[in-house]
Design brief:
Structural class of chain B: mainly alpha
Helix content of chain B: over 70%
Largest sheet of chain B: 2 strands, antiparallel
Number of domains of chain B: 1
Number of helices of chain A: 10
Strand content of chain B: under 5%
Strand order of the largest sheet of chain A: 6-7-8-3-9-10
Largest interface: A-B, 29 and 25 residues
Order of helices and strands of chain A: EEEHEEHEHHHEHEHEEHEEEHEH
Number of helices of chain B: 14
Helix content of chain A: 25-40%
Shape of chain A: elongated
Strand content of chain A: 25-35%
Distance between the termini of chain B: 28 Å
Largest sheet of chain A: 6 strands, mixed
Oligomer: heterodimer
Distance between the termini of chain A: 29 Å
Structural class of chain A: alpha/beta
Radius of gyration of chain B: 26 Å
Shape of chain B: globular
Chain lengths: ~300, ~375
């Protein structure tokens, strides 16, 4: 269980994260979503004890990160966005070094490294990490994050440099980790990626948590119209009259006025149908275009600003 | 510390291996070894010359019923004087090369964030890095000194226990000197974002401490700060002239045994002047690891320079006043005496690494790892 309680971080008086309160349960794949500069990485760095919060606290399995950072780090596997390794060492040597820092016994460590390198497709690669591509480093980063078999895995922009095969492997690995009852936090600004693997998510904008919950919960809010305007497409056999409705925020007519795109603050298809029928306009099609996920979450970001 | 241990030693072990496997370390160590051997060979040649001169004096003295001053038997330590000359420059370079990118390299490769995400305290990281580097430095110096000793033995020179102790003192002081510049480089590495900047800042400090500071201690600057030495009393000059001696003569016949009041006054003034100058020079020297090292190694290898001596012979026939002189040869000074004589310099040499490592430690503990 991860708990963030009224977490705030300021840099020189400028807030990077404001009063963030969040709970993430075991076995969840939690997506921390937000545009660049939203405070995702700062939140993660506070969670792993690399920076001190200005106020509030983080608890990992009941342990306060500020009070026992070493104990928390023992329970966390972390892959930063700009994952860096020791370029003169091989993948195995890098992981051996990190494994020793986790105080892992040599024999289990050797076995674990072998398994993880095979899992991430790096088995048999003996060249120094300095010669790796970004994608290979990212794979190694994933292996590093899983090295100590932690109950909490934190991945910051995990697919940024991966090729399609790497992304597919990554999704499979993360799903496997979550199926073992471990918590995975994925920080990303790529909605498509988060939507593919995460079971719950929180949306950060300008350091503030503007929405959080399961996909269903967030979808319900969208369907309830609480998340912004809708777009209605109209196609008729007769020229359209002037459209007037309190919910309409904009209308674009076709040149022959036998069609229009209506933007409204809510779904007013029924009202439009009744009005046009009353005017004797024969309707060919009236549809409400569902907004893409990107549009929905963009509205959250804008709301957060 | 109980909470440290595994993390500290793991990091130190890796740092040590990183250093001893790195090309720059091996390259500098290689140069080190070459100059150590060359230095020892030239030192041995000088030593053998001094020894034969000493032996000639000994033979002459044994034949003469009233032996004159024989001088001292040359010391084996004088062999190391040329090694110390090379060490002053290359040792500093080795220390700087090992320290300037110790932290910046981690920042640049982004490995610092991943390292600190492991269950280690920050002090374990910086202490481990320093410990690994110290071990590598000690390893390099140990190789150099073992090779020097081997070269001595090959040349047929077998040091005694006292001389071995002094060689040990020289090795420790050399280590402290290299460690001073390592600590300065480490500090620059913690405050800089890039290795290039850290190197440049460290080199600027190195130049300031090894070249600019000694310039402050030269004769011209010293005379500006302390004024000119007291003039030779007119009264004594007049007396010399009336006795028919010219001022060009070095043979002066007045009483320097302590009975002539004019000479006594001049002598005490001159002594006070040179003591003041020496105190100022010594104080300036304390701020430079290079100057401290030179002074200590001169004491150890017994090739002191820069001293001032004024003396009158008991017969009242001579005066020596000099701003610098050098003497070669070994006086039978034991290890505690030499350490006591250079204690201030040794302490100053200790303060440099302690100060800069302390600053590095404080800076690293507060390092922003965003």
């Amino acid at each position: 269980m991860i708990e963030l309680e009224h977490l705030t971080k300021e840099y020189g008086g400028v807030p990077a994260v404001r009063d963030l309160t969040l709970r993430i349960g075991p076995g969840e794949i939690f997506g921390l979503l937000g545009p660049n500069g939203a405070g995702k990485s700062t939140t993660i760095l506070m969670l792993i004890g690399l920076i001190e919060p200005t106020s509030g606290r983080c608890l990992v399995e009941g342990i306060d990160v500020s009070r026992d950072p070493k104990g928390v780090k023992q329970r966390i596997g972390y892959m930063p966005e700009d994952v860096g390794f020791y370029g003169t060492l091989s993948a195995e040597e890098n992981l051996t070094y990190f494994g020793r820092l986790y105080r892992m016994e040599p024999a289990p460590l050797r076995n674990r490294i072998g398994d993880l390198l095979a899992l991430t497709g790096l088995a048999g690669v003996t060249k120094p990490v300095g010669g790796y591509s970004k994608g290979m480093r990212q794979r190694l980063g994933l292996a590093k994050a899983l090295l100590n078999d932690p109950p909490l895995v934190i991945l910051d922009e995990p697919t940024a440099n991966l090729d399609p095969k790497g992304v597919a492997d990554y999704r499979e690995i993360v799903a496997g980790v979550a199926s073992e009852g471990k918590t995975v936090i994925v920080s990303s600004h790529i909605l498509g990626e988060v939507s593919r693997i995460c079971t719950t998510l929180g949306i950060l904008s300008a350091g503030t948590l503007v929405a959080s919950g399961t996909w269903e919960e967030l979808g319900k809010r969208v369907r309830n119209g609480t998340s912004g305007p809708v777009t209605i497409s109209l196609e008729t056999r007769d020229p359209l009259p002037g459209l007037d409705h309190p919910a309409i925020t904009g209308v674009e007519y076709r040149n022959d006025r036998r069609g229009a795109t209506v933007t409204a603050s809510e779904d007013i298809r029924d009202s439009l149908y009744e009005y046009l029928s009353g005017c004797g306009v024969r309707i060919r099609e009236i549809s409400c275009r569902e907004r893409s996920l990107e549009e929905v979450f963009l509205s959250y970001y804008q709301g957060g600003d | 510390m109980a909470r440290q241990g595994s993390g500290l030693l793991t990091i130190a072990h890796k740092e040590f291996l990183d250093h001893v496997r790195s090309r720059k370390f091996l390259l500098i160590l290689g140069i080190f070894l070459v100059i150590a051997v060359v230095g020892i060979i030239s030192g041995v040649a000088d030593y053998n010359k001094s020894l034969s001169v000493y032996n000639q004096h000994m033979s002459a003295a044994s034949a003469s019923p009233a032996p004159d001053t024989m001088g001292d038997k040359p010391s084996i330590l004088s062999v190391f004087s040329s090694v110390s000359t090379y060490l002053v420059f290359l040792g500093a370079i080795l220390g700087i090369a090992m320290g300037f990118d110790l932290v910046t390299k981690e920042k640049e490769s982004k490995s610092l964030k991943i390292l600190l995400s492991h269950p280690v305290y920050r002090d374990e990281v910086i202490n481990g890095k320093a410990l690994g580097s110290i071990a590598a430095l000690a390893f390099a110096l140990a190789i150099v000194f073992v090779l020097c000793l081997a070269a001595l033995l090959v040349c047929g020179i077998i040091p005694g226990s006292g001389e071995l102790s002094l060689i040990g003192v020289f090795a420790i002081v050399s280590f402290l000197f290299i460690f001073s510049y390592f600590a300065i480089a480490l500090f620059m590495s913690t405050v800089s974002e890039e290795s290039g900047s850290a190197l440049i800042y460290t080199l600027i400090i190195f130049i300031a401490l090894s070249s600019l500071l000694p310039m402050l201690a030269n004769d011209t600057v010293m005379e500006t700060l302390t004024g000119s030495p007291p003039e030779f009393p007119r009264e004594l000059v007049d007396r010399m002239e009336t006795q028919g001696n010219t001022t060009k003569s070095v043979s002066i016949s007045f009483d320097t045994s302590g009975n002539d009041p004019a000479w006594q006054e001049y002598s005490s003034k001159l002594n006070a002047y040179w003591e003041k100058r020496q105190a100022l020079t010594d104080t300036i020297s304390l701020f430079s690891p290079t100057m401290n090292y030179q002074k200590i190694s001169s004491s150890v290898t017994n090739t002191e320079s820069g001293n001032v001596l004024i003396s009158g012979t008991g017969s009242g026939t001579g005066i020596v006043a000099s701003s610098s002189f050098a003497k070669a040869g070994f006086q039978s000074v034991n290890v505690p005496d030499i350490i006591a004589g250079s204690l201030v310099n040794i302490l100053a040499l200790l303060i440099f690494p302690i100060l800069f490592f302390g600053l590095s430690y404080l800076r690293f503990m507060r390092l922003d790892v965003r």
